[in-house]
Amino acid sequence: MYSDRMDLSFPMGLVEFLARVSSVISITLLLLLFQAEALHPSQVAPREWFGLVFFPIGVIVGLAIAWWKEGLGVSITLGSLLAFYFVYGYLLQYHLGGWAFVMFASPAFLFFFHWALGRVSHNRNSTLSRVH
Hints:
single chain
């Protein structure tokens, strides 16, 4: 018998697992990089603190929230990343080369993919149940 239902439980579980593991790795690396010995608060200019609120603090908070509320966590993480680039790149006119900052926030893309896949699966299943 043919069914229009698409079983996404394994792919969704795998994406969720990868998102969570990569977020733990990213948060751990960020905390290690910005611990007291690597970051000297007295050497940070007052105007640079505004950018530090977005990266790493906003990225860490967003990735942690994404464990429970994926859409909200992704929004906070990616919004913080964009705000960080805006503050440091445009307002402070620092040259931010490379993809390191994006790589630390990359688990948000996996959380977004899981969130979007879950919404499509839920909408498809609710549509099919109304038809049958």
